Amino acid sequence: MRYFFHIAYQGQHYNGWQKQPGAISVQDVIEKVLQQVFKQPIPVIGCGRTDAHVHASQFFFHADIEMEFDFDLLFRLNKALPQNIAVFDIIKMEGLPHARFDAVQRKYDYFIHTYKDPFLSNQSSFYLEPALDLHKMKSAVNLLPKYKDYRAFCTQPNKYEHTICNVMEADLFVNSKGDRIRFHIASNRFLSKMIRILMGKILKVGKGELSVDAFESLLINLQTPKTLDPAHPTGLYLSKVTYPYLNLEPRTDFIHSMQGVEWISV
After folding, report:
1. 14 is in an annotated binding site
2. SS3 at position 13
3. Which phi and psi angles does 167 have, rounded to 5°?
4. pTM higher than 0.90 for the full model?
5. Which residue among the candidates 28, 51, 179, 213 is catalytic per the annotation?
6. Binding of substrate: at which residues (predicted)?
7. How do the residues of the chain divide into helix, strand and coil, expressed in percent and rounded to 5?
8. What is the DSSP string of 126-141?
9. Which residue, 82, 112, 154, 234, is the most exposed by fewest CB within 10 angstroms?
10. How far apart are CA 259 and CA 120, in angstroms?
11. Which range in 26-30, 66-70, 126-130, 259-263 is most confidently predicted, on average pLDDT?
């Protein structure tokens, strides 16, 4: 029987979702706990691959569990998992739906604060840039849904069959004081480090180091820039994953409850 698991995690202590030799990953921790519970290996397949230190306020993985069980699996997993990983729902699925390949939309949010705050250091990226031109940044962000090929915003474009991404939403928000920023983007797929590279270039636009026209030329000419300058991983959240047959609201309303911030579109 295939099950979908609806989870969230803080990623600052993990080398991303994907299991890999010599590093602690979210997938590795979850598989070890499942093995403890069922006394046999239970491989899991995630809805994507987040970078090292990136968070997920909504994430799905699937697992095939052949044996019948009559205990509260949700309770056992949450009791055994560390505090920075939570399981919200375990959903028995019909057939063999795939957590990664069946997803039709993924949403990410990237948070920035422009003043030093020790209580935000694990939640948001710190950039001491109090004079960012938010309107130019918004102009750059508004271009994203108009283009489909994101080859210029990828660390390894040649490893993909194609670099087409259907960006459905892109917006820039700011708090009332103008010292905290949220970049939001939704697409059917994302390339390696694509969002962090986009954020790095958008920050350059805000600092006056890259014009909006030059930013757009990257989308038009598809030339990989000499320096990619990806933004810091801390502050990036996978915040929503949608399937044709499953569309759950995130259990943790992190975006709107983040220390009472009211986000205003620039």
Report:
1. no
2. coil
3. -75, 115
4. yes
5. 51
6. 108
7. 25, 25, 45
8. E---TT--HHHHHHHH
9. 82
10. 10
11. 26-30
Cβ contact 98:3 at 8 Å:
no
Residue whose pair of structure tokens reads 């969230």 in the numeric block: 8
Cα–Cα distance for residue pair 183/179, rounded to 1 Å: 13
Chain centre to alpha carbon of residue 244: 20
- HEC readout, 144-190: HHHCCECHHHCCCHHHCCCCECCEEEEEEEECCCCCEEEEEEEECCC
**Residues 152, 222: contact at Cβ < 8 Å?**
yes
Side chain identity at 58, as an amino acid letter? Q
Q: pLDDT by residue (tens digit) across 167-222?
A: 999 999 999 899 999 999 999 999 999 999 999 999 999 999 999 999 999 999 99
Phi, psi dihedrals of residue 165, rounded to the nearest 5°:
-130, 130
